[in-house]
Amino acid sequence: MMGLFTKSPATTFLPRPTARTPLLEPLAPVRATPAQRRTTHMAASLLLDYPDARTLAAAHEVRDVVGQLPDPVQVRLCAFLDDLEAGEPAALEARYVATFDLKRKCSMYLSYYAAGDTRKRGMALVRFVQAYRAAGWEVDGEELPDYLPMALEFSARARTRDEERIAAGLLGSHRQGIEVLRSALAATSSPYALVVEAVCLTLPPLDAETERRYLELVTSGPPTEMVGLSAMGPLEPFAPTGAPPEEVRR
Questions:
Q1: Does residue 19 surpass a pLDDT of 60?
Q2: Residue 45: is it exposed, middle or buried by C-beta count within 10 angstroms (0-12/13-18/19+)?
Q3: Alpha-carbon span 174 to 66, nearest angstrom
Q4: How far, in Å, CA of 189 to CA of 165, rounded?
Q5: Looking at the DSSP assignment, which residues form a beta bridge with residue 109?
Q6: DSSP letter at 213?
């Protein structure tokens, strides 16, 4: 499945990051066990979801387990939990919409960073579904398969070596998008940057090609060509089939 995710050709000159979205230094990964990485990804999956009553209830469960995580991860997640628990539900929901629905560089959909509103996005979404199916999972729910909390939950639920390899490939292939999201959230002083940072701390170091794509995307943003998913044609491939052992999202 790794071969499905291709890299863009290298270029000689790197664009300059804009003043609006400053370039952040990559975070050095922390030493974490597989169990700690899974716990971090599940916690982030819950906290990055829309802050409705279910998410706010799950936040209390997250606080119960963050103490077992590496200190840099624990500090960030606890700080975000403090912010979440201090907020009013209506204000939290409004902030979430303003952050993730109204800013191009704060999209929660990973393939959007590389493909934007172009025809390539359809194939990128199919590849997410193929990755889940290769591990015996099916997408269940209304979200598109490249939704970051979904990909993180998939990583958190991976248990076999093959599942872990597929999950790592899925996140690694879209690492530049995760880094752009981190930069954009930090530029607006969003508390959600803390959660994305916690995820980045548990991912492998950025390779040279991913860092190059990150530089490009911080500068120019996702590509644009067509507006709306209707331009990609029917979305039948994303409908659940069969009886998987568990859903990717409940």
A1: no
A2: buried
A3: 25
A4: 33
A5: 147
A6: H
Tokens of 212: 């190059």
pTM beyond 0.90: the answer is: no
CA angle 176, 183, 223 (to 5 degrees): 50
> Which residues make Cβ contacts (< 8 Å) with residue 236, sequence separation at least 6?
none
How far is residue 249's CA from residue 79's CA, in Å, rounded to a whole number?
Answer: 26
Q: How far apart are CA 222 and CA 237, in angstroms?
A: 24
> How many alpha carbons fall within 13 Å on the CB side of residue 204?
12
120-149 per-position pLDDT tens digit: 788 888 888 888 888 888 887 788 999 999
Return the SS3 of 247: strand
Q: Are 124 and 83 in contact (CB under 8 A)?
A: no
User: Is the CB of residue 72 less than 8 Å from the CB of residue 30?
Assistant: yes
State which amino acid sits at residue 243: A
Q: In a 3-state reduction of DSSP, which class is residue 51? A: coil
Strands (E) in the chain, as ranges, are none
Residue 205's Cα: distance from chain center in Å?
A: 16
* Residue entry with tokens 């943003």: 221
- Residue 246 corresponds to which amino acid? E
Q: How many degrees, rounded to 5, is the angle at CA 108 between CA 171 and CA 113?
A: 70
- The 10s digit of each residue's pLDDT in 59-116 is 999 999 999 999 999 999 999 999 999 999 999 999 999 999 878 789 999 988 876 6
User: Is 28 within 8 Å of 202 (Cβ atoms)?
Assistant: no
Residue that has been written with the tokens 């802050």 in this structure? 51
3-class SS at 138? Answer: strand
